[in-house]
Amino acid sequence: MAKLTLYHAAPSRSSIVRWMLEEVGEPYDIHLLSLTKGETRSPGYLAVNPMGKVPALGHGDVIITEAAAICTYLADEFPRAGLNVPIGDPRRGIYLKWLFFGPSCLEPAVIDRAAPRKDEARREMLGYGDFDTLMNVLAKAVSAGRLMGEQFTAADVVIGSGLRWAMMFKLIPERPEFVSYVGRLEQRPALQRATAKDKELAAA
Ligand SMILES: N[C@@H](CCC(=O)N[C@@H](CS)C(=O)NCC(=O)O)C(=O)O
Fold first, then answer.
1. For residue 66, what is the DSSP state?
2. pTM for the predicted model, two decimal places
3. pLDDT tens digits, residue range 108-133?
4. What's the CA-to-centroid distance between 193 and ligand 1, angstroms?
5. Is the CB–ligand 1 distance for residue 40 below 6 Å?
6. Closest residue (by CA) to atom 20 of ligand 1?
Protein backbone atom coordinates (compact mmCIF):
# COMPACT_ATOMS: atom_id res chain seq x y z
CA MET A 1 0.00 0.00 0.00
CA ALA A 2 1.21 3.53 -0.83
CA LYS A 3 2.79 5.22 2.16
CA LEU A 4 0.99 8.05 3.97
CA THR A 5 3.16 10.90 5.29
CA LEU A 6 1.75 13.87 7.15
CA TYR A 7 3.78 17.09 7.02
CA HIS A 8 2.87 18.36 10.43
CA ALA A 9 3.50 21.04 13.04
CA ALA A 10 2.11 20.25 16.48
CA PRO A 11 -0.34 21.75 17.23
CA SER A 12 -1.59 23.56 14.13
CA ARG A 13 -4.10 23.14 11.33
CA SER A 14 -2.28 19.93 10.45
CA SER A 15 -3.67 18.53 13.73
CA ILE A 16 -7.02 18.36 11.91
CA VAL A 17 -5.46 15.85 9.53
CA ARG A 18 -3.73 13.98 12.32
CA TRP A 19 -7.14 13.47 13.94
CA MET A 20 -8.53 12.33 10.58
CA LEU A 21 -5.66 9.87 10.12
CA GLU A 22 -6.31 8.44 13.56
CA GLU A 23 -9.98 8.02 12.61
CA VAL A 24 -8.98 6.28 9.35
CA GLY A 25 -6.71 3.88 11.22
CA GLU A 26 -4.13 3.30 8.46
CA PRO A 27 -0.42 3.53 9.34
CA TYR A 28 1.18 6.90 8.63
CA ASP A 29 4.49 8.68 9.13
CA ILE A 30 4.99 12.16 10.47
CA HIS A 31 7.38 14.65 8.90
CA LEU A 32 7.62 17.22 11.66
CA LEU A 33 8.19 20.91 10.94
CA SER A 34 8.65 23.82 13.30
CA LEU A 35 6.53 26.90 12.62
CA THR A 36 8.63 29.01 14.99
CA LYS A 37 11.82 28.09 13.16
CA GLY A 38 10.15 28.97 9.83
CA GLU A 39 10.69 25.45 8.50
CA THR A 40 7.57 25.62 6.31
CA ARG A 41 9.38 28.30 4.26
CA SER A 42 12.52 26.23 3.61
CA PRO A 43 13.25 25.44 -0.07
CA GLY A 44 12.86 21.73 0.68
CA TYR A 45 9.37 22.17 2.09
CA LEU A 46 8.31 24.71 -0.54
CA ALA A 47 8.90 21.93 -3.05
CA VAL A 48 6.23 19.96 -1.15
CA ASN A 49 3.79 22.84 -0.65
CA PRO A 50 4.66 26.08 -2.47
CA MET A 51 2.22 27.85 -0.12
CA GLY A 52 4.66 27.22 2.74
CA LYS A 53 1.87 25.83 4.91
CA VAL A 54 1.04 22.67 6.82
CA PRO A 55 -0.74 20.34 6.48
CA ALA A 56 0.42 18.50 3.40
CA LEU A 57 -0.17 14.81 2.94
CA GLY A 58 2.02 12.54 0.86
CA HIS A 59 0.25 9.43 -0.41
CA GLY A 60 2.65 7.47 -2.58
CA ASP A 61 3.78 9.97 -5.22
CA VAL A 62 0.86 12.36 -4.69
CA ILE A 63 0.93 15.43 -2.46
CA ILE A 64 -2.37 16.84 -1.26
CA THR A 65 -2.62 20.14 0.57
CA GLU A 66 -5.46 22.03 2.30
CA ALA A 67 -6.78 20.41 5.46
CA ALA A 68 -10.39 19.97 4.31
CA ALA A 69 -9.33 18.59 0.93
CA ILE A 70 -7.04 16.09 2.65
CA CYS A 71 -9.86 14.96 4.96
CA THR A 72 -12.19 14.56 1.97
CA TYR A 73 -9.50 12.61 0.11
CA LEU A 74 -8.74 10.27 3.01
CA ALA A 75 -12.42 9.55 3.63
CA ASP A 76 -12.93 8.61 -0.04
CA GLU A 77 -9.63 6.75 -0.37
CA PHE A 78 -10.28 4.57 2.70
CA PRO A 79 -14.06 4.02 2.61
CA ARG A 80 -13.82 1.08 4.99
CA ALA A 81 -13.39 3.61 7.81
CA GLY A 82 -16.97 4.74 7.10
CA LEU A 83 -16.09 8.46 7.18
CA ASN A 84 -17.34 9.45 3.73
CA VAL A 85 -20.68 9.77 2.03
CA PRO A 86 -19.98 8.11 -1.32
CA ILE A 87 -20.84 9.36 -4.81
CA GLY A 88 -24.36 8.21 -5.62
CA ASP A 89 -25.64 8.62 -2.06
CA PRO A 90 -28.24 11.44 -2.05
CA ARG A 91 -26.67 12.81 1.17
CA ARG A 92 -23.33 13.44 -0.58
CA GLY A 93 -24.21 17.01 -1.55
CA ILE A 94 -24.92 18.03 2.04
CA TYR A 95 -21.75 16.24 3.19
CA LEU A 96 -19.64 18.19 0.66
CA LYS A 97 -21.38 21.41 1.66
CA TRP A 98 -20.15 20.98 5.26
CA LEU A 99 -16.64 20.03 4.15
CA PHE A 100 -16.39 23.27 2.16
CA PHE A 101 -18.21 25.29 4.81
CA GLY A 102 -15.26 24.81 7.18
CA PRO A 103 -12.56 26.62 5.21
CA SER A 104 -14.87 28.96 3.26
CA CYS A 105 -17.20 30.18 6.03
CA LEU A 106 -16.29 29.06 9.56
CA GLU A 107 -12.56 29.68 9.43
CA PRO A 108 -12.64 33.16 7.81
CA ALA A 109 -15.36 34.26 10.24
CA VAL A 110 -13.36 33.13 13.26
CA ILE A 111 -10.14 34.66 11.96
CA ASP A 112 -11.98 37.95 11.35
CA ARG A 113 -13.03 37.79 15.01
CA ALA A 114 -9.46 37.17 16.15
CA ALA A 115 -8.00 39.89 13.91
CA PRO A 116 -10.81 42.33 13.03
CA ARG A 117 -10.49 44.53 9.95
CA LYS A 118 -10.06 48.27 10.44
CA ASP A 119 -13.03 48.87 8.15
CA GLU A 120 -15.74 46.28 8.48
CA ALA A 121 -16.54 44.58 5.17
CA ARG A 122 -20.12 44.60 3.92
CA ARG A 123 -22.09 41.39 4.47
CA GLU A 124 -22.46 40.89 0.71
CA MET A 125 -18.69 40.89 0.30
CA LEU A 126 -18.03 38.24 2.93
CA GLY A 127 -18.36 34.60 1.95
CA TYR A 128 -19.74 33.82 5.40
CA GLY A 129 -22.22 36.71 5.37
CA ASP A 130 -22.26 37.75 8.99
CA PHE A 131 -21.04 36.15 12.19
CA ASP A 132 -24.41 35.81 13.94
CA THR A 133 -26.12 34.14 10.99
CA LEU A 134 -23.18 31.74 10.68
CA MET A 135 -23.37 30.87 14.39
CA ASN A 136 -27.14 30.24 14.13
CA VAL A 137 -26.71 28.00 11.08
CA LEU A 138 -23.92 26.00 12.72
CA ALA A 139 -25.69 25.69 16.07
CA LYS A 140 -28.70 24.16 14.32
CA ALA A 141 -26.49 21.88 12.18
CA VAL A 142 -24.61 20.39 15.15
CA SER A 143 -27.55 20.24 17.55
CA ALA A 144 -28.13 16.53 16.80
CA GLY A 145 -24.53 15.74 17.78
CA ARG A 146 -23.34 14.99 14.23
CA LEU A 147 -23.63 16.85 10.96
CA MET A 148 -24.78 13.87 8.90
CA GLY A 149 -27.38 12.31 11.20
CA GLU A 150 -26.29 8.99 12.67
CA GLN A 151 -23.02 8.90 10.73
CA PHE A 152 -19.83 10.54 11.99
CA THR A 153 -17.96 11.76 8.89
CA ALA A 154 -14.93 13.70 7.71
CA ALA A 155 -17.21 16.76 7.79
CA ASP A 156 -17.37 16.45 11.59
CA VAL A 157 -13.57 16.36 11.69
CA VAL A 158 -13.38 19.58 9.66
CA ILE A 159 -16.22 21.55 11.26
CA GLY A 160 -15.58 20.02 14.69
CA SER A 161 -11.91 21.04 14.58
CA GLY A 162 -12.88 24.61 13.69
CA LEU A 163 -15.46 24.88 16.47
CA ARG A 164 -13.18 23.20 19.01
CA TRP A 165 -10.31 25.58 18.22
CA ALA A 166 -12.59 28.64 18.26
CA MET A 167 -14.04 27.62 21.62
CA MET A 168 -10.58 27.03 23.08
CA PHE A 169 -9.68 30.63 22.25
CA LYS A 170 -13.13 31.95 23.20
CA LEU A 171 -13.73 33.28 19.70
CA ILE A 172 -17.29 31.98 19.44
CA PRO A 173 -20.15 32.10 21.94
CA GLU A 174 -20.42 29.16 24.36
CA ARG A 175 -23.77 28.06 22.98
CA PRO A 176 -25.07 24.83 24.49
CA GLU A 177 -25.15 23.23 21.01
CA PHE A 178 -21.43 23.89 20.52
CA VAL A 179 -20.48 22.81 24.05
CA SER A 180 -22.35 19.54 23.68
CA TYR A 181 -21.11 18.84 20.12
CA VAL A 182 -17.47 19.53 20.94
CA GLY A 183 -17.81 17.63 24.24
CA ARG A 184 -19.01 14.63 22.28
CA LEU A 185 -16.12 14.89 19.82
CA GLU A 186 -13.66 15.02 22.73
CA GLN A 187 -14.86 11.53 23.72
CA ARG A 188 -13.65 10.03 20.45
CA PRO A 189 -10.62 7.80 21.01
CA ALA A 190 -9.07 8.95 17.70
CA LEU A 191 -9.18 12.61 18.75
CA GLN A 192 -7.82 11.72 22.20
CA ARG A 193 -4.92 9.79 20.61
CA ALA A 194 -4.17 12.62 18.16
CA THR A 195 -4.21 15.23 20.93
CA ALA A 196 -1.98 13.15 23.23
CA LYS A 197 0.55 12.50 20.44
CA ASP A 198 0.60 16.20 19.52
CA LYS A 199 1.18 17.13 23.16
CA GLU A 200 4.16 14.78 23.27
CA LEU A 201 5.58 16.32 20.12
CA ALA A 202 5.01 19.87 21.35
CA ALA A 203 6.77 19.08 24.65
CA ALA A 204 9.79 17.41 22.99
N1 LIG B 1 -5.58 26.90 3.96
C2 LIG B 1 -4.65 26.06 4.68
C3 LIG B 1 -4.08 26.87 5.83
C4 LIG B 1 -2.93 26.17 6.49
C5 LIG B 1 -2.20 27.09 7.46
O6 LIG B 1 -2.42 28.31 7.53
N7 LIG B 1 -1.28 26.51 8.24
C8 LIG B 1 -0.48 27.27 9.15
C9 LIG B 1 -0.38 26.52 10.49
S10 LIG B 1 -1.88 26.57 11.40
C11 LIG B 1 0.95 27.36 8.61
O12 LIG B 1 1.43 26.42 7.99
N13 LIG B 1 1.64 28.48 8.86
C14 LIG B 1 3.01 28.60 8.49
C15 LIG B 1 3.31 29.86 7.74
O16 LIG B 1 2.38 30.53 7.24
O17 LIG B 1 4.49 30.16 7.66
C18 LIG B 1 -5.35 24.78 5.17
O19 LIG B 1 -6.52 24.86 5.54
O20 LIG B 1 -4.73 23.71 5.19
1. S
2. 0.97
3. 999 999 999 999 899 999 999 999 99
4. 22
5. yes
6. 66
